[in-house]
Amino acid sequence: MRDSTKSVKESIDPTTGAITTPIYQTSAFLYPEGEKYRYSREVNPTVLELGKKIAELEEAEAGLAFSSGMGAISTTLLTLLRPGKRLLVHLDMFGRSLRFAKDYLTSWGVKVDVSPPKDKDMMEMLGKGYDVVMIESITNPLLRVIDVESIGKICAETGTTLLVDSTFATPINQKPLLYNASLVIHSASKFLAGHNDVITGLIAGKGVLVREIDQMRRTLGTSLDPHPAYLTIRGMKTLKIRMDVINRNALEIAEFLESHPKVSKVYYPGLKSHESHSVARKVLKGYGGVVSFEVKGGSEQALKVMKSTSVIIPAQSLGGVNSLISHPATMSHRTLSPEERKASGITDSLLRLSVGIEDVEDLIEDLDKALEKI
User: Fold this and answer.
1) Which candidate, 347, 332, 330, 344, places its Cα nearest to that of 290?
2) For 117, how many CA atoms within 13 A lie in the half-sphere containing its CB?
3) Helix (H, G, I), strand (E, B) or coil at 298
4) E strands along 316-358, which residues?
5) Which of 93, 132, 270, 374 is the most exposed place for a label (fewest CB within 10 A)?
6) CB–CB of 134/77 below 8 Å?
7) Angle between helices 299-308 and 360-371 (to 10 degrees)
8) pLDDT of residue 337
9) CA distances for 94 relative to 47, 230, 295, angstroms
10) d(CA 128, CA 274)
11) Residue 66 near residue 223 (C-beta atoms within 8 A)
12) Which residues of the chain have pLDDT under 70?
């Protein structure tokens, strides 16, 4: 089956014949008939179906759902790492992921190295030998497309466990497991669920690793409630058609912004001017729905643009049917120090636009009017 079919298809309930997955809103199950499930923190039929769907889309052996994207990341890293183990991450990743690695895992005795935001630097560092490497296939917010093919090849040769946060790419634009990743991670609150109404995290990958992480999830309690699981399954049914529209809209908006006199720089891997455009053409089927850009001026001008849109909503999230705009320096990446933001290339004039499925002409007009106010 192809991605559109996988996204829509659900398991049919053998007892009732329900063609959509029911919300099993229960804490426990009748014993011994309910022995497979027992207790919803451990296993719930609705949540189980969501894990199955992400495994199918990512062409993985198994999938698993969590209470949030950070729940998926923290539970996975706590399962695979322990004092003395070595982890490699890159500087230009999501702020909370970097904080968890640098602040918590190092305090727990894990040896954490942070690569500069260049593929060649990371590939050179891989020679030192690591137990786990974690990358974002498309970085947040400057949209550097990491050469997962080359990094995955090195990790496979050295026996290193490669984790890929593929939130920005989605299974529609990239399947990291085909590039030797051991696990793929999603903040499914974003493009997968797609409606800005749930908090969900997902992983998919090798069955032996997913089962091990599942035991840690049950212990930590980073379990997903059945209702957001149901909403995520429902949202995923339109994933392919949403991403097709979002990919087109984002490229057109990026091209518009690149020619705008009030914009000094645009970051979008679909543009030939982007530093990783050649890598993006190699490892992505589509360039995604996030466009970042710097306005002429500083923080004051950027915030004025963000607050002047009428169709696009100023908000910190991304990946929904509604277009959202945010200021990374004071929002998604506020936990980074000024020095860390500078090293990552995040300036005070940078805005991150999550492109939705609205009419692209309305979005361009909205941006144009907001930019004219600075």
Assistant:
1) 332
2) 24
3) coil
4) 324-326, 350-354
5) 374
6) yes
7) 140
8) 79
9) 26, 27, 22
10) 30
11) yes
12) 34
pLDDT tens-digit series, residues 127-149: 999 999 999 999 999 999 999 99
CB 298 within 8 A of CB 331: no
Cβ neighbours for 175, distance < 8 A, ≥ 6 positions apart: 58, 59, 184
Q: How far apart are CA 194 and CA 221, in angstroms?
A: 25
- DSSP class per residue in 245-273: HHHHHHHHHHHHHHT-TTEEEEE-TTSTT
d(CA 317, CA 319): 7
Angle ∠(141,91,199) on CA atoms, nearest 5? 50
pLDDT at 145: 98
Q: Among candidates 115, 139, 117, which has minimal Cα distance to 267? A: 139
The pLDDT, as a whole number, for residue 142 is: 94
State which H helix or E strand residue 96 sits in.
helix 95-99
**Residue 338 CA to chain centroid, in angstroms?**
24
Count other Cβ atoms within 10 Å, centred on residue 212: 14
pLDDT number for residue 25: 96
Contacts of 28 (CB under 8 A, 6+ apart): 34, 38, 39, 40
**Tell me, what DSSP letter sits at residue 191?**
T
Q: Which domains does the chain have, with CATH numbers?
A: 3-236 (3.40.640.10), 239-371 (3.90.1150.10)
Residue 184: name the closest of 286, 336, 50, 54 by CA: 54
Cα angle 164-168-173, degrees, rounded to a multiple of 5: 85
